[in-house]
Structures are given as C-alpha cells and as structure tokens.
Amino acid sequence: MIKEQKIALINAGKYNPESIAEYLKLGGYQNIEKALQKNPADIIELMIEAKLRGRGGAGFPTGLKEKFTNEAVCERCVQKYLVCNADEGEPGTFKDRIIMEQDPHVLIEGLIIAAFAIGATKGYIYVRGEYTKSIHMLRVALQQAKEKGFLGKNILNSGFDFELEIKLGAGSYLCGEELTLLESLEGKRGYPRIKPPFPAEKGLFGKPTLINNVETFTHLPYIIEHGAEHYKSMGTEKSPGTKIFTISGDVNKPGYYETIMGVTLRSLINDLAGGIKGHKKFKAALLGGAAGTFVDETVLDTPMGFDSLKEKGAVLGSGAIIVMSEERSVFDMAYSILAFFKHESCGKCVPCRVGTAQLMILMDKAKENSSKKSQILDHLLYEADYMAKNSLCPLGQSPILPIKSLKQYFQHQF
Amino acid sequence: MDKSALISDFEPAKDNMLNILHRLQNKNPNNYLTTEDLKFVAEYLNTTYSSVYGVAEYYSMFSLKPRGKNIIRLCKSPVCNMISGKSLIEVIENVLDIKMGGTTSDMLFTLEPSECLGHCALAPVMMINDKMFTNLTEDKIKEILEKIRNNNPTQ
Ligand SMILES: Cc1cc2nc3c(=O)[nH]c(=O)nc-3n(C[C@H](O)[C@H](O)[C@H](O)COP(=O)(O)O)c2cc1C
Ligand code: SF4
Ligand code: FES
Description:
The complex is a heterodimer. Chain A is α/β, with parallel strands linked by helices. Helices cover 42% and strands 13% of the residues of chain A. Chain A folds into 3 domains: 20-232, 3-Layer(aba) Sandwich (Rossmann fold); 242-325, Roll (Ubiquitin-like (UB roll)); 331-409, de novo design (two linked rop proteins) (Up-down Bundle), CATH 1.20.1440.230. In chain A, the strands form 2 sheets. A 5-stranded mixed beta sheet of chain A has the order 6-5-9-7-8. A 4-stranded parallel beta sheet of chain A has the order 3-2-1-4, with helices on both faces. In chain A, β5 and β6 form a beta hairpin. In chain A, α3 (40-49) runs antiparallel to α4 (62-71). In chain A, 55% of the residues are buried. By secondary structure, chain B is of the alpha+beta class. Chain B contains 7 helices and 4 strands. Chain B has a 4-stranded mixed beta sheet, with helices on one face. In chain B, a hairpin with a 2-residue loop joins β3 (126-128) and β4. The model of chain B has no long low-confidence stretch (mean pLDDT 94). Chains A and B meet through β5, β9 and α12 of A and α2, α4 and α5 of B. The complex binds flavin mononucleotide, iron/sulfur cluster and FE2/S2 (inorganic) cluster. Residues 174, 192, 345-349, 352-353, 391-393, 395-396 of chain A line the site of iron/sulfur cluster. The site of FE2/S2 (inorganic) cluster (FES) has 12 residues of chain B, from α5.
C-alpha cells in the first residue's frame, strides 16, 4: 500500500487560503527568512545538489536552469525576470490549480526564493484566464504578502527587492510553451519564438529570464527547510522528491494525489485512486495528457519517474494519468487528442498547420471504415514523424508521442 | 462608462495588454470588445490598432462580436469527452436552440467549446461565466439552464 506524501501540498487544506495570518501560524514564510540569509549562489547549489527537476513536463534540472540564468550576465545590475508558468492546459492536468486555489502562499514563497537566487527583482505569474478561482486566490495572497513586507522593497531588511504581478492568459494551450508564454506576456499574439536563444539568455523583453512551473517552485521552500539529503531520500535516484499525479477517467476515486516519485502506476490506481470503476479490467492509461503517451498493462509496474518511463517509450509529463477500462476504445481517445492538436495549432508553420489537419483526415477515414484502422496507424506515424522533424515549435513535435506509443502498445487494438 | 477610469490601475505598458482587454470585455454587458475598446487600448498603450486587433482576435477568450450575458464553455477535451460521449453538446444545442458557437436570440446565452478546464476528476464539466458545473448529466444541464432563464425574465 502506498500513501500520500506531501511537499507541494503540505499545507493545502490546512488553512484558509485567504488568510495569511493562518498561514503564518503554520510556520509560513519562515523559509524566506532562512533563504535571504544565504548566499544566492549557495541556494542554486542546493537545488542542484537536491536534483530538483521541473514539474512542468520535461523534467529539466531546476538548479541548472537557475545557474544559467544567474550567469547569463555577470553584473547583477542588469534586469532579470522570474516567470511562473501557471497556464496549465494539458488535458487531464489540474495540479497547479489545486496549489493556487488551496495554498497560494507556498507558491509565492518559492517565487521569492528563486528570484533571490538568480537576482531577479521583477516576477510574473502567468495564469490561465479560465482559472478564475486561482486568479482570485493569487490576488488576495499577493496583496497580503505585500502588506506583510514579504514582497516589495527591502524584503525583511535583507536589501533584496522583489515585485510580483499576475498576468492573465486568454485561452491558448500553446501559450503554456515557455517561449510562447513570454511572447504573450509581452502583450503579443501567442506565436512561438525560435529556440535558441533560451529564456535564460534572452527571455522576457530580451532579458535573462527564469521560467518554471508552479509545482516546481513549491519545492524550493521545502528544500530550503529540510536540505538536499532529506529531499533526495524521497523518490528515486534520478527523480527525487514527490509529484502530484492527477488521475481521471475510469477509476473509483479520480482526483489529485501527491506521493513520491517512483511509485508504480498500479499502486497509484489501486491504492490511491480506488481501483478501476465497476470491477472492470484495466486497458490503457494516457500518461502526461495529449502531449503524452498511451501505455498498456505491461507498464503497470514500472516506477513512475522521468527516466524509468522513458525506457518504456512513455513519458511522465505533467503527471496526468487518464485511465481507460476494458470498455473504452483507444481509437476514440486518440481521436480526441488529435482533434485537440488541430484546434490548438497556431498555424504559423506549414508542417503543423497542414499536418494536424491531415492527421484528422486520416482519423475520420478510419472512423468511417473501421477495417482501415490498423493500416491507418502507419500513415499517422509517417505524418507525425514528418511534423516532428519539420515543425517550428514543440506543439507540432508532440503528436508523434501518443502515436508512437499507440504503435508500440496498441497496434492490434486500435 | 469612462474607460480610462476602468483601467487606471494598469500602467500604460504593452505587457498589460491582455489584462486590460479582459477588464474591458468583462465590463461589457455583451461580453465582447468593441472597435472603440480596441482603439482606446491602442492609444493607451501607444501602439497600433492593428496590433491590438491582432491580439484580441488571436485568443479564444476574447470576442469581437456581441455575445450572450452568460458564456457557456463546454469542455470537449479527452476526459470529458470519454466520460460523457458527444451527446452533451447536442443537449445544450437543443435546449437553447442554437449551434455550438451561437448566441440565443434573447442574448442570454452563448455556447462555446473549451479545451480541458482542469476539472477532469469531476468530468464532464462546463463553465458558465466564472462558475464551474461538474459531473454533468442531461437532466442537470437542463436544470442549470432553466434556473438561469428563470432568474432573467424577458422584458
Ligand atoms: C505546447 C506546450 C504547452 C505547455 N504547457 C505548459 C503548461 O501549461 N504549464 C507548464 O508549466 N509547462 C508547460 N509546458 C512546458 C514549458 O514549455 C516549460 O518546459 C516549463 O514551463 C518549464 O518549467 P519546469 O522546468 O519547472 O518544468 C508546455 C510545453 C508545450 C510544448
Ligand atoms: S508547430 Fe504548430 S503550434 Fe508550433 S509554430 Fe508551427 S503551427 Fe504553430
Ligand atoms: S478534460 Fe474536461 S476538464 Fe479536463
């Protein structure tokens, strides 16, 4: 039996998120005091030592990202920015929403620590426009943190200044991609930028910028408090710490569950999500959302970590787990996610604009004539592979992920 | 209404574009951005009308056409789709006698599709304005829409 273990959600549900007084009673903002007494470079070393990896999907080492941003310019006087990616839009994912709605202060703490570490004096939380409750909670929390002197000039007499602002998205999945997010933040259409340069070098308004996911930031206060060794004692060697898994679909208790990295899909489904609904059999899970991968029962006992899943041709992604029982059709699910990509393609480059439409044409053909379904998979693969090689941004490079996994695990059940 | 007063808490900086457009749209009883709004924003941010138009047109939450008082955003993303089947779109279309994307003639409702609204554990879901409605069924939808109708008697 696995149990929940909490870092990001350690205080969620334990206090009224509209009351900083209650948060302070729980020991809130003490890690800010601790962090501000440290040398910024030591904080970055601590995050590298803890092997903290980004929770936004790609699992990039957070400490290294901080280091690159910090070293992008030698003088500390050059403006640097901190950006929190709260544009959560990957289907099946709702972990950042839970953090923002239930514990906005831990996020603010994490942001202050990261800003201090890289020397950013200005930060933005870019939050999804549809997340009205998250926006409300962040606004209240930000105001209260300002009043208490945790934000603004000379925070806790440390000489460090940090302003934090909320920016709203307006309904574009693509704007969750970091470079597109920066474009949107600058008040432009959400068209992606070419990488490199990376945000660490040339980010918001052309200045060095650190951008991380909401969940990633919430791990910083915990690591400051407990140290790298303790953090690494949780999870796996390559993916330490905890992760919030959002489990939906055919389970008895769909919801969000935070536990250590490296637990198995089987235990997540059975021990935490109450097993498959209606005593049915497990057929498939879509891991990581639309830009994710399908897996079958042979992956049920693989540790859920960035690298262990990769070995199986799967991804952890955002931590979304969409469970499908024996009664569901993987074809129908594939149809929905390819429709999603078509809808969200920005149309700027041809391979993706035409490619996402082409994938749907193939799917519609197969829908009409089900004897074609198994042949269509190779066509889809060919098309998605072309897109992956020629598209301008990661969105066009994404459909290959689910399609390849269908070929690997569901060729005969498609 | 005085537009300048409405957005006076935003500095005239281009990075406030989306926040300003949201504010103006929210204050419009028909939930949309008028040509005057866009011109006003262009002037306020010292940029061109076409660049403001381009932004407003790009993002799905903004509308350049009048919409109903209540914006229904029905999630059509994978989880909601799987749990509900496609039928919920039809339910709403039939109750309101409009097509997806349309607005009722009394300007009370606009029906829009939405991608995952982050409430997949409670699928299927929809939002009406700022409020989430979860675990939807045909009956539940009818009840919700009926209630809104009754609270808005036609003049
Ligand atoms: C199409 C697309 C959408 C994305 N959406 C999100 C998102 O909603 N939230 C997020 O944190 N990262 C998202 N990402 C990943 C970001 O580009 C980036 O990797 C992430 O913000 C880095 O943060 P991390 O290092 O803390 O994981 C998306 C990427 C792509 C390609
Ligand atoms: S890959 Fe798709 S989303 Fe990315 S720039 Fe090209 S068209 Fe736009
Ligand atoms: S798929 Fe509908 S809320 Fe996530």
